[in-house]
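User: Can you write out an input/output pair for a complex, sequences first and structure second?

Assistant: Here is one pair. Inputs:
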Amino acid sequence: MTKTAKIPVGILGATGTVGQRFIQLLEQHPWFEVAWIAASERSFGKTYEEAAKWKMKTPIPKKVASLKLSAADPKGAPKVIFAALDADIAREMEPAFAGAGCAVISNSSAFRMHPQVPLVIPEINADHIKLIDSQSWRKQSGGFMVTNSNCSVMGLALALAPLHKAFGIEAIFAVTMQAISGAGYPGVPSMDILGNVVPFIRNEEEKMQEEAGKLLGTLKAHEVAPADFVISSHCNRVAVEDGHTESISIKLKKRATAEEIIAAWRDFRGMVTDLNLPFAPEVPIFYDERPDRPQPRLDIERGHGMTVSCGRLRPCSLLDWKFTMLSHNTIRGAAGAALLNAELLKAKGYFG
Amino acid sequence: MTKTAKIPVGILGATGTVGQRFIQLLEQHPWFEVAWIAASERSFGKTYEEAAKWKMKTPIPKKVASLKLSAADPKGAPKVIFAALDADIAREMEPAFAGAGCAVISNSSAFRMHPQVPLVIPEINADHIKLIDSQSWRKQSGGFMVTNSNCSVMGLALALAPLHKAFGIEAIFAVTMQAISGAGYPGVPSMDILGNVVPFIRNEEEKMQEEAGKLLGTLKAHEVAPADFVISSHCNRVAVEDGHTESISIKLKKRATAEEIIAAWRDFRGMVTDLNLPFAPEVPIFYDERPDRPQPRLDIERGHGMTVSCGRLRPCSLLDWKFTMLSHNTIRGAAGAALLNAELLKAKGYFG
Amino acid sequence: MTKTAKIPVGILGATGTVGQRFIQLLEQHPWFEVAWIAASERSFGKTYEEAAKWKMKTPIPKKVASLKLSAADPKGAPKVIFAALDADIAREMEPAFAGAGCAVISNSSAFRMHPQVPLVIPEINADHIKLIDSQSWRKQSGGFMVTNSNCSVMGLALALAPLHKAFGIEAIFAVTMQAISGAGYPGVPSMDILGNVVPFIRNEEEKMQEEAGKLLGTLKAHEVAPADFVISSHCNRVAVEDGHTESISIKLKKRATAEEIIAAWRDFRGMVTDLNLPFAPEVPIFYDERPDRPQPRLDIERGHGMTVSCGRLRPCSLLDWKFTMLSHNTIRGAAGAALLNAELLKAKGYFG
Amino acid sequence: MTKTAKIPVGILGATGTVGQRFIQLLEQHPWFEVAWIAASERSFGKTYEEAAKWKMKTPIPKKVASLKLSAADPKGAPKVIFAALDADIAREMEPAFAGAGCAVISNSSAFRMHPQVPLVIPEINADHIKLIDSQSWRKQSGGFMVTNSNCSVMGLALALAPLHKAFGIEAIFAVTMQAISGAGYPGVPSMDILGNVVPFIRNEEEKMQEEAGKLLGTLKAHEVAPADFVISSHCNRVAVEDGHTESISIKLKKRATAEEIIAAWRDFRGMVTDLNLPFAPEVPIFYDERPDRPQPRLDIERGHGMTVSCGRLRPCSLLDWKFTMLSHNTIRGAAGAALLNAELLKAKGYFG
């Protein structure tokens, strides 16, 4: 491989909302290039331009526009696969690809809680990728699987990580106001959300508890011991395009002042600073001092959508502290998260 | 007074959002009729139709349309006054009217926490109106003042009231998603809220703690001993026209099952059932069993905007129970609340 | 039939958006009552409450909530049928019901342009129902079919009708800004319309030309000679829940002043004033003099959703006059239109 | 001046919506740098960060954040001034600056129709800047004034320009659906526009006729002979953040096929191709072949907000052709337009 050759990657579920985001974010990626795409059967053989209802705000990258959709079969697929599949389909398809020797970087919920599948946010728990070595796929074919968390958890886990390390966290109260893009396309009917709030997102509250625990947990021999905090969450859908806003209260194990908390956020750089990952934001967590921020419409693009914004830190009369957190649900919370995972794996030598 | 004669009432701040709602709700009221209106100086002498930027969805009632705006002076004003003023103006004007012998039914925050001014939701604490007898205005001129709470508190207090009585409440976590109409007109700029969430409403979180305590408090000799629960709240503005949605968790003093809580809500009729108040809803609290309800766009008109909707009762891993609550912020949370207070006062003989 | 007995009616497509509106509007109808409902096969045998995703703002009428969904078969169906079906399904099902002796009052586009099927807005062309006598179904079984127009045409045709009669219309330019409810449920994905305009609605521009011509056309022996004006339209979808707003310019055959046009609208009562139809609005067309009206959020409920609002009449530098028109797309433009057609048929003796 | 020294520029009205956009767009400009800012008196002496309610989606450029606001006085101001003032203020202040020797590049409507003030879109009528030589300010002090058009006109004029040149235009029908950002901040109250359409924007329709005529007019000795087409427009406000969408019909003087029109748009490069202006888009007009485009949410950023999108070209039954046009109202329609004018003036040697 010459110095400038990029690693060819494939995308499963390439025509959906997260698949489109993958293609957009990979357009000028220095390490990877989209070489293979697959979607549902009815798209097979069409060009991407014909098959996808493209909803991104930048044009379809020219190379991908004319790429033909392949059958979702590991034969002929590249060795690095981004998977943007619904959980039901992922449950069958992702093991098939991992078993055939592919590195499957998945955004689906299907295997997130599987004991040998790492659930990773590189800044927080890059070390969890060692679980890969325990995977049966790895042993058989060299293939493996890595996942990122639910979009409502990603920003929360990042905001908690430095506090968890510095002070310990005992309890978390989190109420989400989630963007419509989190439900994909066609997703939320406009009749349901225009001028409205929907106080229910299926399975979301359950995922928040278990995934946050695994992300902030400790790697043991062949599995992760989850963090021992309690999370209670309420998940709501609001009329916002991109960006999950969360009202969060926390109880710490060790006392901390507002200054200490803000410093912990500001100083946080995470476990990947020495790796120079192209998609890692310079500042993973930005604390905004303005009294009415962060706001999705204004702050979501910070760090190209990879920086989590916190604001309004103030005492909580029930737990210790309360604050507002915002993260970009389809970049930091989905495609960008997976991309960063892939960069970590590459940097750590997992792509051969 | 003949059987059909209605009590003439005046409206201070008649051209604002809450003032308009008063005029709309009073259009066909069996007991009261709008006889006098006042607003800021620049409206003086104009007809209501000329002066008001009418934003209600029903036409201006004909009688009021041609009514001329008076100066905001107790001379010539009726004895019953609904006040829909900004707090700064209310602070001066409401005592002037009460001191001149008027019954001031106020929606402003200016005197809510004044020890001798009752803060009333008739179903919850109708007995608090006895505080009136301690008011200096009452002693001097016969005038007095009664207030209703902030729009974010009203629905919360109603949802808590039957549980507080039956089981005792120790702690409350509440995150609001509040409608734009709560900020009046012009209020929230569209650039701030379209497709957005604003995680800050000035003074709102402070009001939630103190007003809920007073509403659910106990009447002592000359003041109210506040309820002893702790409230922690986060207040957010969302792109909803009418209807504040709240994600609420509670810790009870005495254990209760979901069935017992729902029964407490459903059986609740409040302290005014025997008074036949025209604006009192048949059902003050409706528990909606559908998994994704209540929603502002669909459920806000229940009980003509006077019924509070609860839904999604489920265990909270941190406190005891969590649920969603919805109430109409400009009816149950403002003009309708004041109107119900006036009906209570009339029924109790305070209007002579 | 005793004095108070109501005519039993059936609803085809009862669970969809228009079907729901039928059920809502019929709840307290003095002449009709819902006795039979049908929807797609997967709903068969369920109660309405179980089968429908009810999206109206009033609760499901109690009687209908427990009604079981029947198979869509004329056997066992009442003789009066409201049809709220997609065009493809209507094309097969409506003739089956008409052929079996039912009066089919259809909201679908399937047979609107059929030469023997009247396309009716009672105030405009009640006389067109005579076409029924030419229908083959009528001759065979007594059954027949009557339709109402597309939701984008209804308000336009009403606004044009008095001008067409008084002055003649030569040309119409109409640009629509249509509400999301016009596309049914789930209909428009929120990702497509939140903070957006979609400048395309399939087949809508074509329908506007042909349906307006038939509505304002002249009844001949066995068919309608369409009005001879030219319509050019642009159809757009906007983020509005209910209410189609249209920017309209017109060229008249005979000169008219603004006063004459407004008078023609205000004086218009239509062809049904002597019939006392319960759902006919007192004022079919309301001219609003305020400079920034009509607006969907504020004016859509006028006349219980059956009154069309016009405003901003001013000279057009290209044609003669321009103005804004607003009508409620799921009441005046769909279910309410069909209901008014049914009332006309009843009053004219077509229901036996 | 060394090769890399940038021209210092000042901004009048720096804290408003258009002023903010100027500051954002100038952040990395190769020719200009913000050296001086002024706003209303109450901001005087504050830093920009303190004074501005910054509503852009990128952070305040660091250099500007700490810049202090000056009094709006030509003394001490740079020689190149971008003016983002309300018309009333502009009417007094812009001549003061031009009279004091400044080049005033104005976005206000105050002097757009002044016979000696060029109203310029560089791609269309760069030659009109010769009017500057006739300005009395120019003769006295060397200062001068150049303006850009209203945001609703800019995209329309660009879409018309190549057709006007190739085929001649006789008549235009245009209905706008304009974004809220066009009204500045606080601008449109959310209560007016959420889920709504407002069919009125003061003076907008008048500006469309006269400004489009001047933009596409012909430079004579000391003034511009306006183009002789007739425009009839309806202006509406919709719940869109950025991007004016317009439904347009046109009558040409010379017949043209759809292919010829699309080719005229696609081939259009304008009068500035040889000048290498940094902010000139590569493609001034993009024709989008997808049936439901352009849409503001998806297409507004094309060409960094400087490309106008057209779509849906189809025959008009009344005039000749109809299509949809979209342009970014605060970039191509305001700050970006003025910036491009400044680049033109620099390239043509007007900045000394």
